[in-house]
Amino acid sequence: MRARELYALMIGAIVPRPIAFVSTLSADGVANCAPFSYFMGVSSQPPILAISVGVRRDGRPKDTAANIRATGEFVVNVVDVALAQACVQASAEVEPEVDEFLLAGLEKQPSELVRPPRIAASPVQMECRLERCLEIGAAPQHLILGEVLRFHVAERVWKDGAIDIAALDPLGRLGGELYAHQREPFAIPRPERAR
After folding, report:
1. Quick check: pTM over 0.85?
2. What is the distance between the terminal CA atoms of the chain, rounded to a whole angstrom?
3. Could you tell me if 122 and 29 are in contact, meaning their C-beta atoms sit under 8 angstroms apart?
4. pLDDT tens digits for 19-45?
5. Which residues contact 158 (CB under 8 A, 6 or more apart)?
6. Distances (CA, A) of 19 to 40, 81, 193
7. Number of domains in the chain
8. Do 69 and 57 contact (CB within 8 A), yes or no?
9. Would you give the DSSP letter of residue 137?
10. Residue 27 CA: distances (Å) to CA of 53, 66, 68, 161, 187
11. pLDDT at 9 > cutoff 70
């Protein structure tokens, strides 16, 4: 299969994917934010996240990967349905000197432990320090592992000591230009441990 066909197969089969709206700062202090749906939690002790960042069409590293490698810091902002349009606007491939916060009409919120700003409208923000970056494949993809140094959770999505999924209303990425959100979550009890 060709690269484009493989990509379409992967994004169509691995669904829904959460979206990491990653904010960074360049070494020169230019703010950047961009969405990535190749994103997951890796561990909780310590809290480690993984984000896969490709390259630009011309083969140069995307600003997110370049900034994280240069500074060692980033913020993962969770995307809810209210942030959908801004998320898509910030996905535009623009030159490194363009501030995507301005491009997408997003308000910056200062972080507490890292230099990159948070996306103020995001209901959950995770300030991260680079743990390691692996180059994978011929392109290459940058697999970025980051340790969460501080969590920020909006009161409106926090209930009884946990995140309320209905209040969070997270946006999920599907294939092509399709997105999804969860309106009717359901529970399936786990079996008890064998004794």
Report:
1. yes
2. 48
3. no
4. 999 999 999 999 999 999 999 999 999
5. 164
6. 9, 11, 33
7. 1
8. no
9. T
10. 18, 9, 9, 38, 45
11. yes
Stretch 6-22: mean pLDDT:
91
Contact 31, 25 (CB under 8 A): yes
Each residue's pLDDT tens digit, 157-188: 999 999 999 999 999 999 889 999 887 888 89
Would 186 be classed as within a structural domain?
no
As a whole number of angstroms, the longest Cα–Cα distance in the chain is 60
Alpha-carbon distance 10 to 56, whole Å?
19
Residue 122: give its domain's CATH number.
2.30.110.10
Q: Would you give the DSSP letter of residue 69?
A: H
Residue 188 inside a domain? The answer is no
Residue range of the domain that includes 145:
3-181
